[in-house]
Amino acid sequence: MIRKAMKGNVSLIAGSIMVSITFALLILSFIWTPYDPLAVNADDSFAGISMRHILGADKIGRDILSQIIVGSRVTLFVAALAVTIAMTLGVSAGIIIAIASRKYQSPMIYAVNIALAFPAALLAIILAAIYGASTITAVAAIGLATAAAVAQVTRRTAHGILASDYVLAAHASGASTWRIIRKHVMPNLRASLLIQASAVVSVSVLAESSLSYLGLGTPPPAPSWGRMLAGSQQYLFVNPLLAIWPGIAIVIVVLGFNLVGDGVREVFDPTLRRIDS
Amino acid sequence: MNIIVFGVRRLLLFISSLVVSSALVFSLLRLLPGDLAQAKLGIQATPEALANLRHQMGLDKSLVAQYWTWLTHALRGDLGISYLSGANITSEIAQKATVTVPLVIMASILAVLISIPLGMYAALRYRNMDGVATSAMSQFGIAIPTFWTGLLISTLFAVVWQLMPAGGFPEAGWSEPGNALKSMVLPVFALALGQGAVLMRFARSATIDTLQQDYFRTARATGLTKVQALRKHGVRNAMIPVISVLGMQMATLIVEAIIVENVFALPGIGQMLLQDVNNRDLLKVQGIIAVTTSIVFFVSFLVDLALGFLDPRVRQS
Predict the structure, then answer these.
(1) CATH architecture entry for A2-272
(2) What b/e readout covers A6-26, taking b as 16+ CB neighbours within 10 angstroms?
(3) Mean pLDDT within B175-189
(4) Single pTM value for the model
(5) What ipTM does this complex have?
(6) Residues of B with CB below 8 A from A251's CB?
(7) CA–CA min distance A173, chain B (Å)
(8) Nearest CA in chain A to B18
(9) Do the beta carbons of residue A142 and residue A208 sit within 8 Å?
(10) Under DSSP, is residue B162 helix (H, G, I), strand (E, B) or coil?
(11) Where are the domains of chain A?
């Protein structure tokens, strides 16, 4: 089944490779890193690319490769929690709105639309103003903000499914609402949920890195890609390469999950394969 | 639905969204332990002084009454006075907006100008290497965080080639139009590239859609070349999703502008907001967020109106 899905599906293949690299980094971070990512070594200040430091070292001589490997932890931790919050809240809200009677539907849609005006970073800024910046505020902000988008897409898709003839037939044969959700709505939502989940991971990784860059994410000393980039900015004139590596790591994760999402869409919607590949 | 009924309904929706969202932000920011009076006077304040100041600031009234006071003042353009710096919040926002508003507008225009031709090109050549490469480019554009785009182009243009300033804004602002514009170039590009990549995907799929329509085939049958037919039918069809997505993206665009301002040290609303968050200047944070979300709701109101006007199907839903 997987092999069949992969065949000729460039997005899925390329995306899976990038996602695998990300998880390999995460696993590696618990087993081995070239150096202690926080070890300071004044002799290696701004060390270039060498056998000693494969990707060089920052101002206080911390090994860049080690920091990037360990930085995958914060990124994927935040993304995993945020995607859990967003999918749990978003999918339940979306289905509830879709099955609700007309009277309750429009105020709930209205509430989702208001929530959509607060993107993750804005919500994170509000939460940081109240509680101070931390991993928790970042996770909560990203999870809640993306939940609104998930709710909207889920509601629309579920609405389409509920309007179909087989649901009408199920109704006529006396199936309960719960049975219809379980037997008809959820299975048909599966592809859309998978695509949304991968999109939420990408958005979370982008948001987390931006928040860390702004100093509103995970506080130091835990290495994070966004903060590494923020740190590199002061030394652009000394060592511009420092501004490259963490960015590549971010792009690999985001691109990987986006491509997997596209690939999954292609598997479930063969019409796309013909025209929109 | 009648266009006027449609417009009035959207207007009511816009106004009520403003009230609800500002109430939400207001109550969120008041959930804090301690209050504004405590923050202003510090821990050593005597209870009498605290009670006095609370009364003066209206903090002894109910939350609803406080919100009402804030809202009625805000509607008259008075967002209060920062209790840290003593500055008038409205005039500070207005002053910083002279940087942020042109940044967002120029970036939106540039993003549309990039996305429509490239999206149409990618659609037209979707079977060829160059079309696929153009689509792949947009995938990259979406995956690159805006602040990194900013860092990269400032490394290239300011550090390596030294063509543009790496950041900052002339002290005198727009009264030095040349310098002001020059310091806007890199931030506008940083903001527009990511947005353009998102919009391009929509322009591309709208164009692919057009290519399969009967009217397109008819246009081709009358002897127009593919490009001529697309110029006639494709541009408009690509514009509709691009404009509506741009409207939906407005919230994201403003947040990205906040980030870009920090990359390029532009003294705009975003930079101010981050400073105020770090200082816990809550009244000011509240004011800035109220203004930002109002702009977001206003833009989506305008986009809704425009689409309702252009496309009768929108009015039905």
Answers:
(1) Orthogonal Bundle (1.10)
(2) eeebebbbbbbebbeebeebb
(3) 85
(4) 0.87
(5) 0.86
(6) 140, 143-144, 148
(7) 30
(8) A114
(9) yes
(10) coil
(11) 2-272
